[in-house]
Amino acid sequence: MKRIGIGLSDFKHLIEEDFYYFDKTKFIDEVIKDGAQVKLFARPRRFGKTLNMSMLKYFFDIKKADENRKLFKNLYIEKTESFKEQGQYPVVFLSLKDLKATTWEEMERKIIIILSDFFSEYEYLLNELTGISFENLKNIIYRKADIDELTTTLKFLTKILYEKYNKKVMVLIDEYDSPLVSAYINGYYKKAKDFFKTFYSIVLKDNNYLQMGILTGIIRVIKAGIFSDLNNLRTYTILSDVYTDSYGLTEEEVEKSLKDYGIEAEISNVKDWYDGYKFGDSEVYNPWSILNFLQDKELRAYWVDTSGNDLINDVLKKITKDTVRALERLFNGEGLRQNISGTSDLSKLLDENELWELLLFSGY
């Protein structure tokens, strides 16, 4: 019986160490066939966002292409026409999940450090660069570039990778909204917005070296103008009717996993406990809850305490008695109908009108 990989988000490690894996490689096929050059996927926490990004990295990356090809043996993508895209592109995979700070000055320092550490993976390119490109890469790695210069770093990286491989570049940015949420909570959102709007736009818009850009996050921070310059962006949330089974687990996947572990008798109880999501027209289960149940064989609320909810807590401080009563009805199992805009405006103070969409997109 295969081991359960709780909290594992590295696709290669999961496959090579033979952990139990729900085959989500259909997502690769769908991404390739999707005509949008830049895609943003907004899903609640613990729904497999980082694992899917890791999977994309190992699939597309031109480095170690033959070695990585073995990772997809007997998986869905191997049987598709899209498998010819395996190992065909340089890949830039940047995670911003740890980019949080209490002040803008601290955020600036962390941006410099995180990008320095990230670009150290490409230090080998110094041997192939000359002139300004050599100086730029060296300054980023050795933390000599100032914050304004760093807004162009990802496009610069796509340029030098294109020149090395003569292939356009896949850009993957995981948890794009993490620094923006941190900035909102700590009162320096405008400065962060100005930096990241430029940081994202320069690499994702009118970039001749870009093959495809994919971003993931929990909320869709778009009203505030973060992506207002990107006319090539398509956003997919839990309300979208496509990619509905790319994140989270379908009922069929859950039933199969219970049978694989000899606890199919628990199917009814598992549905009662964990069948609480609807993405588009599909019923979806939280994978964190299911994986923990497969391991512990105990029915309980695994997902609730997995991370902070600072945005929601901030809004809850401002709600009226009417909203409190509406929440009470929800807690008592009653239905509630609300208009959801699908975006969160962090450029102004969030109010109770934002509560419902924050709850929805955060997975409640």
Automatic annotation (TrEMBL):
Residues 6-227 form the AAA-ATPase-like domain. It holds the Pfam family AAA-ATPase_like. This is AAA-ATPase-like domain-containing protein. It comes from Fusobacterium animalis D11.
